[in-house]
């Protein structure tokens, strides 16, 4: 879905992070099972990722499964794991045709081996692409990421007494620039443990739309909102 959209009128963030939320409620509203909501959500994710990079976003991070989401029913967790295998295995061509490099953030344990295998293959097969990065936050937790970084630093024998924020960032799951714009669909206004370090100075946006209905035109509206924001980073502007 395209809108009249004058790209010269908007600020384009470098790194946009999306909390994919509301799949379950989207399905419930339609008398469907939560599984159908996830099917619809992840079908939408591909089109949205393509559109975001087309708009000039360099990095799109998607929170697709939190470390806490393993507490959901076995049926739902297993359905989501199957979706991830399909998304990663069946869409290699999609990512390559759109020149998208795919990376992942998150822990291995307790992901099923089939998901890790599909994930690793997709990373390897898209590593040379240059049209933008899609960062899947899968089995991801912000606190887990910080703890894992500390463990890596301890194991590396780094000079902790002189460690800088910039150096710390290199021990995170991915060495990516900070998030500029964080979108959480479905009206929930919380971070739920998402990119705690990287969202430090992000602008937040909470559309009511549930993720399966959050399409290209909705993203363009989000960009207009981002354009209106005044990012100050602690400074006083126009003094
Ligand atoms: C987010 O949608 C998708 C994942 C967690 C993968 P939800 O499943 O959280 O949907 P709601 O919040 O219950 O509507
Ligand atoms: C956060 O959404 C995780 C993902 C979208 C992957 P949740 O739906 O799990 O978060 P809470 O439980 O509402 O905070
Ligand atoms: Mg939710």
How many domains is the backbone divided into? 1
Largest sheet, strands/sense/barrel = 6 strands, parallel
Would you identify the CATH architecture?
3-Layer(aba) Sandwich
How many distinct beta strands?
6
Amino-to-carboxy terminus distance: 42 Å
State the CATH class: Alpha Beta
Q: How would you name the CATH homologous superfamily?
A: Decaprenyl diphosphate synthase-like
SS element count, helices: 8
The stretches of 5 or more residues where confidence is low (pLDDT under 50) are none
Helix and strand content put the structural class at alpha/beta
What CATH calls the topology is: Undecaprenyl pyrophosphate synthetase
Structure, briefly:
The chain is an alpha/beta fold and 239 residues long.
What does this structure look like?
This protein has 239 residues and is α/β, with parallel strands linked by helices. It has one domain: Decaprenyl diphosphate synthase-like (Undecaprenyl pyrophosphate synthetase), CATH 3.40.1180.10. Helices cover 41% and strands 14% of the residues. It is built from eight helices and six strands; from the N terminus they run E-H-H-E-H-H-E-H-E-H-H-E-E-H. It has helices at residues 23-29, 34-54, 74-90, 92-97, 113-126, 142-156, 165-169, 216-228, and strands at 15-19, 59-66, 101-105, 133-140, 181-184, 203-205. It has a six-stranded parallel beta sheet, with helices on both faces. The model has no long low-confidence stretch (mean pLDDT 96).
């Amino acid at each position: 879905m395209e809108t009249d959209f004058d790209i010269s009128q908007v600020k384009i963030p470098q790194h946009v992070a999306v909390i994919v939320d509301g799949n379950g409620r989207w399905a419930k509203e339609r008398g469907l099972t939560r599984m159908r909501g996830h099917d619809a959500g992840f079908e939408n994710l591909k089109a949205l990722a393509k559109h975001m990079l087309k708009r000039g976003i360099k990095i799109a991070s998607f929170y697709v499964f939190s470390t806490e989401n393993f507490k959901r029913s076995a049926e739902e967790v297993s359905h989501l794991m199957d979706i991830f295998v399909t998304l990663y295995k069946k869409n290699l061509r999609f990512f390559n045709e759109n020149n998208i490099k795919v990376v992942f953030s998150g822990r291995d344990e307790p992901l099923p081996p089939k998901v890790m295998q599909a994930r690793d293959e997709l990373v390897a097969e898209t590593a040379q692409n240059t049209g933008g990065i899609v960062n899947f936050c899968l089995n991801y937790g912000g606190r887990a990421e910080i703890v894992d970084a500390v463990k890596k630093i301890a194991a590396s024998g780094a000079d902790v007494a002189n460690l800088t924020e910039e150096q710390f960032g290199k021990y995170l799951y991915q060495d990516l620039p900070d998030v500029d714009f964080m979108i959480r669909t479905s009206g929930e206004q919380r971070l739920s443990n998402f990119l705690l370090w990287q969202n430090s100075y992000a602008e937040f946006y909470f559309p009511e739309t549930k993720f399966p209905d959050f399409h290209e035109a909705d993203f363009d509206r989000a960009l207009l909102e981002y354009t209106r924001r005044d990012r100050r980073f602690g400074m006083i502007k126009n003094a």
